[in-house]
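INPUT
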Amino acid sequence: MNTSFLLFALLNPLFALLAAPLYMALIRKVKAYAQGRKGPRLFQVYYDLRKLMKKEAVYSPTSSWVMRFTPYLNLSTLLVCSLFVPLVFVPEPAGGLGNIIVFLYLLALERFFTALGGLDAGSAFGGMGSSRSMSLAAVIEPTMVVAFAALAFVLKSLNLHHMFALTAGTVLPISPTLVLVSISLFIILIVETGRLPVDNPATHLELTMINEAMILEQTGKNLALLELAHALKQFLLMGILINTILPVGLSTEIDAGKIAVSAILFLLKAGLLAIIIGLFESALAKMRLFRLPAFYVMAFFFSALTILIEVFA
Amino acid sequence: MIDPLFLEGIIKVLFVFVLISAGLIISTRNLSSVLTTYTIQSFLLSAVSFLLYMIDGKGQLLLLAGLTLASKVILIPYFISRIEEKIKIGRDLHFAYLEPTPSLLLSIGLILLSYTFLSRVFEGLPLSRLFFFGAVIGLSLTLMGMLVMFSRKKVITKALGYLSMENGVLMFGLFVTELPFIIEVLIIIDLIILVMLTTILAVGMDSSIEEYRQKFRKLQIWTGVESL
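OUTPUT
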C-alpha cells in the first residue's frame, strides 16, 4: 500500500459516484432531443436520487432479507468495481485489484443478486424480469469473457491497471485490433446496462421490461441505491471503453494539474460516448427476445476475430 | 514522404474494417444497409490500393484504386440502388440453411481455415507479414462472400454476395499474385455487365429463384412453351 494507491482508492470511486448519474441524464436528454422533446434537466437525476433517499422504503409482506440486502450489496459491489477501473489516473498496482476475472465475477454477483431481489418480492413482473435477465446472461457471459480475453490478449495483461498504464499517453489506439475489441465492448455496455435494442429503460411495459421489472418492487432509499449502482455500472463500462480506445490525457502520475486535465478530458469523452449511445438507442427499435443472440454473436465474432488476428498477424 | 510504417499501420486498420464489413454483409437484413456496407467495403479496398501505391509507387496500383472507386463505389451501387427502388422491398428476411448467427460463427472458422491453408502454401516464401495478412483477409473475404450467396434467398443479396466475393479476389490479387492490370479491368467490366443484366431483370429480382418463372409468366415477359 503506497500513497499513490491510497489517493486512487479515495479519488476514483468518489469521481465515479459523483459523475455517473450525469451520464444517465445526458443519454436521456439526447434521446429526448432525437424525439423532438426538450427532456429533463441534466441534474434531474441527482434531484430524483435525493428525493428517493428521503422516502421510506416499503416492502411486500412476502419479501425476505434478500430484498433489503440487495441494494446495499449492489452498490458496494460496484464501488469495489470502481477500484478496478482507473478513470482519471493509473496508480502503481497493488494487490489483486484490477484483475479482470475478479471484475467479471463481481459484475456477475451484482447481476445474480438483482435477479434474486426481483424474485423475492413475489410479484409476477419481478419473476419474469429475473427469468429473462438470467437467460440472457447465459448467452452474454461467454461473449463477455471472450471480449475481455481479447482485451487481455491485445494489451498483454489480465490487470486493468496494467492495461491502462500501457494505453495511457498514446493518441491513437496502439493496435488496430483494439477497434474490434471496442465494438465488442460497446455491445457489452449496451447489453449490461439494459439499453435498446436489448431492453428499454424508459418504459414499464410487460413485454419489454428486463432490468426495470427486477427493481419494480423496490422503493425509497433502496431504489435510489439501485439506480445509483446501475448508473455506476454504466459509467465504469464506459470508462473501460474510453480508456481502451481513446486514452488521450489519462495521467499515470500524481500531479494535481495533470489529474484535473485528465478528469476534464474524461468527462468530455464520456459525454461524447453518452451522445453516441443516445443516438444509437434512438436509431434502433427493440429486438425480439429470441433474436438477441444474433446481436451478441456480433460481439463474439469481433472478439474472436481479435484473438485470431493477434495470434496470427 | 510519409513514413511507410505509418502507412502500413493504417492499412492494418483498414483490414479490420474490411472484416467488419464482411461480417455485416452476412448478418444484415436490411437491403439498403447491405448495399451501403458493400459500397464502404469497396471504398476501403480502393483506399488500401491507394496506400499501397504510396508505399510502392507503382502506377498500376493508383489506376486500380481509381478504377475501383469509379466502378464499385459509384457505378455499381448506383445501378443496384435503382433496382432496389423498383422492386419495392426493403428486407431480405429469409435465409436458406444458415441463420446469421451460425453464419458468423462459421465465418470465424473460414478465416481460421484460410490462415492455415495459406500458411502452408506460402511456407518458405519471402512474404512480409502485412502481405500475408492481406492475402488471408482476401481469401476469407472470398469465402465469406460465398457464404452470403449460399445462405441468402433473395437474388439481389446473392448478387451482392458475389460482388463482395470479387472484392476478396481483388484484395488477394493486390497482396499476393499481382494480377495483370488488363485482367482486373476485364473483371470489372464483367461485374458492370452482371449488374446491368440484373437491372434489366429487375422485375424478377424481388423473388426467390423458384418464383422467378411464375413472375415472368405473369408479366408476360417470357411466356414459355406451355402458352404456345
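end of record. Chain A is about 70% helix and 0% strand.
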